[in-house]
Amino acid sequence: MRKNSPILVLVLFMTLCLCADARQKKEYDSDVIYDESKLPAYTLPNPLETAEGRIIDTPEEWHNLRRPQILSLFANLVYGTIPVPSSPLRTSVKVEEEDTEFMDGKATRRKVWIRLRNEQGRADMRIVVWTPKASTDPVPAIMHLSFDDNQSDRLDRSDSHPDRLNNGVPIGEFLDRGYAYISVYHADLVSHNEVEFNRGIHPLFFDEGQSFPKAHEWGVLSACGWTAMRALDHIETDDRIDSDRVFLMGHSKLGKATLWAVAQDQRFAGAISAQSGCGGAALWRRRSGETLEKISRFPHWLCVNSRKFINQEDDLPLDQHMLLALIAPRPVYVASAVDDTWADPRGEYLSAYYASPVYRLLGKEGLTSEETPPVSEPVYETDVGYHIRPGGHSVDLYDWERFLDFADFHLKR
Ligand code: GCU
Fold first, then answer.
1. What is the rounded end-to-end Cα distance, in angstroms, of the chain?
2. How much is the pTM?
3. What is the pLDDT along the chain (413 residues), one digit of tens a residue?
4. 191: helix, strand or coil
5. Which of 147, 288, 342, 348 gets mutated to test ligand 1 (max ligand atoms within 8 A of its CB)?
6. 342: CA distance to ligand 1 center in Å?
C-alpha cells in the first residue's frame, strides 16, 4: 500500500486538475447562447447603403464607392491593416525537393521555400504543390491554408487510404479531377496564438522603435491570410498552374483567414470556408455560440480595435455578410456542420444569404431562400454556395467532395 501511495497521490492530483478544468470550462461556457429563441433582436447593416445613407444600385458604385468603404472598415476595426514596411520586402524562392513520381507517377510534388527579407529581418515560409501529370495545359488549383505543418508526414500519402494524404485530404481525387493542390502552413509567419510579435513576419513591418502592432494593425488572422497571398505570388510564376483559377480554402480559424484574404486579394478566384464561425462567416450580431468576447481569449487573432465592440456588436458598422460580399462577384462557398454549434451554422448560412444582394447587383447568382438548406443537400450551382452536413467540427471527405463540385462548376466552365 505504502509503495503505491505516490501513484495514488498522482492519480488524485490529476483527477482534481481534470475536475477544475471541467468546472472552468463550464463557467466559461455557461453564458453561451445556443437556443434560437434566446438570441438578441438585431438589425444588420445594409451592404448596399453607404455610411452617408446613399443607396448603391450600380456595379460601378459598388466597386468604386461602397466596396472600398467596407474593406477599410474590416481592415481598421476587425482584422487590422497591413502596414507598409519602412524598407522594401524582397522575396527569394528555392525549390527544396521535387518528386515526379508521387502516387505512382500521377503527380509531381514540389516543396518550395519562400524567404521574405528586408532591413528589419527575415521570415521563411514553405509551400507544397502537387500538380497532376495527366494535363498538358495549366490546371486550376485549390490552395489550402492548413493546420498541417508541411514539414511533417501529414502530407505524405496515407497507408490506410492510398489516394489520400495522412491528414485526410483526398489528393487522388484532386488529381483525377484535374486540380493542383497547394498546401500552405498557417503558422510559418505567425504563431497560432501569437501575443508578443517579436518573431515571424510582424517585426519586418515595424517602424523604428515599434515592437507591437498598433491598435488598427494586423493580428494573427490577417497574417495567416497574407501568407496565402505570398504563396499565390509564387504560384503566378508556376506555368503548370492557371493562377487565375485558384480557390483558397480554410477550416475554422483558417476559414476566417481565408475569407479575409480573398476579400482583400482579388487575384484569388474564390473562397471556400469550412466551419469558419465567429470572425469568419457567422454574423456577430446573433451572438450565438462563440462571440466577440469569447474569441478574445485569443487576444490578437483580430486587431486591438475590435475589442471596443465586445458586447456592443450592434455598434459595428458592418457584419460578416459584408465580408462575404467583398468577395463578389467571385464565388464563395460556406460549409457548416450540424453539431458545430460553437461556429453558429445558422449564422453562417444567414451571412451567405444576406451577402447575396451584392452578388445579384453584380449580375451573379446568390442564395434565394432565408431557410437553411436541408442537411446534406448542398447548393453549389450558384455563386454563393452552401452546405450543412451531419457531424461536428472537422473537414470530412464529404466536405472535400462538395468543394471540388463547387470548383468544377465555377473553375471549369
Ligand atoms: C477555437 C476557436 C474558434 C476556431 C477554432 C479552430 O474553437 O474558438 O474560433 O475556429 O478554435 O480554429 O479550430
1. 74
2. 0.94
3. 455 566 666 666 666 655 554 544 454 578 999 999 999 999 999 999 999 999 999 999 999 999 999 999 999 999 999 999 999 999 999 999 999 999 999 999 999 999 999 999 999 999 999 999 999 999 999 999 999 998 899 999 999 999 999 999 999 999 999 999 999 999 999 999 999 999 999 999 999 999 999 999 999 999 999 999 999 999 999 999 999 999 999 999 999 999 999 999 999 999 999 999 999 999 999 999 999 999 999 999 999 999 999 999 999 999 999 999 999 999 999 999 999 999 999 999 999 999 999 999 999 999 999 999 999 999 999 999 999 999 999 999 999 999 999 999 999 98
4. coil
5. 342
6. 8
Determine the residue of 32, 148, 253 to mutate for testing ligand 1's pocket, defined as the one with the most ligand atoms within 8 A of the Cβ atom. Answer: 253
Cα within 13 Å of Cα(413), Cβ side: 10
Dihedral (CA of 64, 67, 70, 74) sign: negative
Q: Which domains does the chain have, with CATH numbers?
A: 59-411 (3.40.50.1820)
Residues 6+ apart with CB under 8 A from 362: 59, 62, 328, 329
- Polymer length in residues for the chain: 413
Ligand 1, atom 12: closest residue by C-alpha = 253
CA-nearest residue, atom 13 of ligand 1: 252
288 close to ligand 1 (CB < 6 Angstrom): no
